[in-house]
Amino acid sequence: MAYLWIHTVWIPGLAFLFGFQGFPVRSVDMQRATDNITVRQGDTAVIRCYVDDKFSKVAWLNRSNIIFAGQDKWSLDPRVDLITKGQLEYSLRIQKVDVYDEGSYTCSIQTKQQPKPSMVYLIVQVPANIYKMSEDMTVNEGSNVTLSCLASGRPDPLITWRLLNPSAEPLDGEEYLDIIGIMRNQAGRYECKASNDVATPDVKYVNVIVNYPPTIKKTKSWESQIGRMGSLVCEATAVPTPEFEWYRDDKRLSSSQNINIQVLGTSTILMIPSVTEEDYGKYTCVASNRLGVQNASLFLYRPGTGRDINGSACVSQSLWLFLACFACLLFKC
Question: Other CB atoms closer than 10 Å to residue 158's CB: what's the count?
């Protein structure tokens, strides 16, 4: 039978137990065949020790503390017990291992041979755990933002960041992710992942809302015959959601018998149920929030003369007509 023999140490605290000046020890980790045993926090650790002589005297020590002397338990820890198979095994079992169990353990055996001790070092690993994460936040575009993600674990966890929309590419950052002059396209859900290969990575999220002033991104002028419906559409992007106003010359317009103004999210529609000669001309759409204002000009044309604000002919109006009709039905104009 082969054994792993480790260097000799002198443990004076056990001399009175066995009446000799040293101890022969043979300790074998059957799974790893190494002097280190690695166990995850909360699992059970078994430190193997085998005896080839039934008349041997044995003991277990942790650092300078006696855990077992023969079958007598000296430790008060209820998680610790012995595994003995016949008289050949004298292994130490520790249930629900915690970080304070980490350290060196010595199995001491006294036989007729030359005394030698063996030590095994117990390594306790702890899964990564994110214990502090930035809360959801709302910031203005151009601000400097710092997101924090603090994690613990043994070994120390690796922390990585991703912005989940639109591409979810990795970001440069560890415990702290610094964003200098944040832009609107950097708004979204940020993922922090802490991993150390002990268990499944711990993942947490923080939502970042970026406020920015309105930008009118689409307008649609209209051409209509007298007596037919006319509709002008204005769409803007902004956070917070913009408020809309309509003007004819310098006069602010509001819903009346002749005009119906509706807001559908980030779009607004000005509808004239029955166009008159006086309705032709220039209109102004104004989008605003607390960060800024933007406006755009739209036109209601006579048939055959219509051109939108970009100079292209108003050939196809079916989509905008559909939207206008839908809004009219929705709000019972």
Answer: 15
- pLDDT means over runs of 10, the chain (333 residues): 32 39 34 70 92 79 89 94 85 94 90 74 96 97 97 96 87 94 95 95 97 96 94 96 94 91 95 94 96 96 65 39 47 46
Contacts of residue 178, defined as CB under 8 A and 6 or more positions apart, other chains included, come to: 144, 145, 146
In the numeric block, which tokens belong to residue 179? 């964003």
- What are the φ and ψ backbone dihedral angles of 97, each rounded to 5 degrees? -60, 140
Asked if 263 contacts 244 with a C-beta cutoff of 8 angstroms, the reply is yes
173-189: burial string, b at 16+ Cβ within 10 Å, e else:
beeebebeebeeebbee
**Token duo for residue 161:** 């960041």
Identify the CATH class of 134-210: mainly beta
Considering only the top CATH level, what class is 12-125?
mainly beta
CATH code of the region 221-330: 2.60.40.10
Instruction: Answer for the pair 222, 307: CB distance below 8 angstroms, yes or no.
Output: no
Task: Tell me phi and psi for residue 272, to 5 degrees.
Answer: -115, 110
Q: What is the pLDDT of residue 250?
A: 87
Tokens 């029955």 map to which residue?
274
CB 126 within 8 A of CB 115: no
Domain positions in the chain are: 12-125, 134-210, 221-330
If you search the block for the tokens 């166009």, which residue do you land on?
Answer: 275
Does this model's pTM top 0.85?
no
Tell me, what's the pLDDT at 220? 94
CB within 8 A of 212, min separation 6: which ones?
140, 141, 184, 238, 239, 291
Q: What is the pLDDT of residue 5?
A: 31
What Å distances lie between residue 75 and 15, 59, 122, 162, 263, CA to CA?
A: 18, 12, 17, 48, 76
Burial 98-113 (b: 16+ CB within 10 A, else e): eeebbeebbbbbbbee
25 close to 7: Cβ distance less than 8 angstroms: no
